[in-house]
Amino acid sequence: MGKITGFLEIDRNDRDYAPVQERIRHWHEFVLPMPEKETRDQAARCMDCGIPYCQGTGSAEPGTPGCPVNNQIPDWNDLIYKGNWDEAARNLHSTNNFPEVTGRVCPAPCEASCTLNIDDNPVTIKTIECAIADRAIAQGLKPEPPAAKTGKKVAVVGSGPAGLACAQQLARAGHEVHVFERWAKAGGLMRYGIPDFKMEKHHVDKRVTQMQAEGVRFHYGADVGVSLPAEKLVKEYDAVALAGGAEMPRDLPIPGRDLDGVYFAMDFLPQQNRRVSGEPLGNVKPILAQGKHVVVIGGGDTGSDCIGTSIRQGALSVTNFEIMPQPPEHENKMLTWPDWPLKLRTSSSHEEGAEREFAVLTTKLSGENGRVTKLRSVRVDDKFKPIPGSEFEIKADLVLLAMGFVSPLHEGMIKSLGLALDARGNVKADTAGYQSSLAKVFAAGDMRRGQSLVVWAIREGRQCAHAIDKFLMGSTTLPR
């Protein structure tokens, strides 16, 4: 695909960032798009691989290489190289409902699986995907309403990437689809968890507008299982898809946890997203990093988002603790490729001024007048056992817990429906039919598989729609 000798003639070149001192002064995206010619040149680097691991194997098993939504990457690279942007957009949207989102926030397992990554020079797949999506949207995001209606009604609970993908696919199959969201706007973590400097929310708004034109109806402030009985949905709809997130955060049960100034990341991040969009905060206490020494516990994407947000709010300092040992800077390709490698990754937020510490266990929080002022930690060995004599303390006016998520919330909807759970506390439903222990109820995304990536959520939403359509109609033409 692409130019046969492109990978030999053209060096890898990717999007750049605006300078740190410029970008931390605002909440807008700061990735600098590449010119069209450079994007086409990069697409020309795509090889005619015998097995294109980048586009995925189709397996639902975690850890499998390539793209979970099975994007036909070599195909649209070839189309871009040849200048056929419209056909590339059609191809891309055939597997991915929201490529403008994945082109911004996906960690790009496709690039890790690229054959050229053996030499640390993978094709810039994520950048090309984003360029295709943005160009198509700029030309006009056209609705794709169904040719005929089926007369069936489906309720989708949750409007994150899994719920939106599921709803859009079902609406295009001709079903009457209602999306129930407990917050004021659609998007789930895309809207309330991902900071605007990584992805501005007009991208979500445009997709919601498209889906409304396709017949999807959104119901906001509808907390299913709390303000709206879950049993009512099961009774009134032909099928119900549960696509809420894994919202139960992993806690840190240590002395001082109850001090003021210690919060979960998902108490902190949504507030700033609401400020940026002008959405009222309600009666919640404002959480702000301005003028404070901030400690973020957890080294993943959520921790990185807390860092970038804290810096933009005007934190005096930001320190990031991770209990895992520091990964190697470079992976052993012969052992890892084409799988996703464990290696040190430095995000744009890390580059903005955070101090990172690995192999650190926080043991105690202390404070004055009920408010946190210090954090006590100890360094640990590779078995997470404290190293004697390595204890230390640092100032901490704001502590943000970003250690991942355990499971979906069980109180309310899941408990009232009496749904079976798997060993990790997720709604039990296999990938063959996405059907829960209750016949009409299906589950997808983080609610079914646990905390994962946006690409997995989109994949699950699409496949859940396939399963529901087949359940309702006996057969389906929706892609699996």
Structural class: alpha/beta
Biggest sheet overview: 5 strands, parallel
Strand content: 15-25%
* Major sheet: arrangement of strands: 5-4-3-6-17
CATH architecture term of the largest domain: 3-Layer(bba) Sandwich
Count of DSSP-assigned helices? 18
The CATH topology of the largest domain comes to FAD/NAD(P)-binding domain
User: Overall pLDDT, averaged?
Assistant: 96
Protein described:
With 480 residues, the protein is α/β, with parallel strands linked by helices. The chain has 3 domains: 6-138, Fumarate Reductase Iron-sulfur Protein, Chain B, domain 2; 153-247 and 407-473, FAD/NAD(P)-binding domain; 251-403, FAD/NAD(P)-binding domain (3-Layer(bba) Sandwich). The chain contains 18 helices and 17 strands. Helix 3 crosses helix 8 (125-138). The model has no long low-confidence stretch (mean pLDDT 96). Strand 9 (293-297), helix 14 (301-313) and strand 10 form a beta-alpha-beta unit.
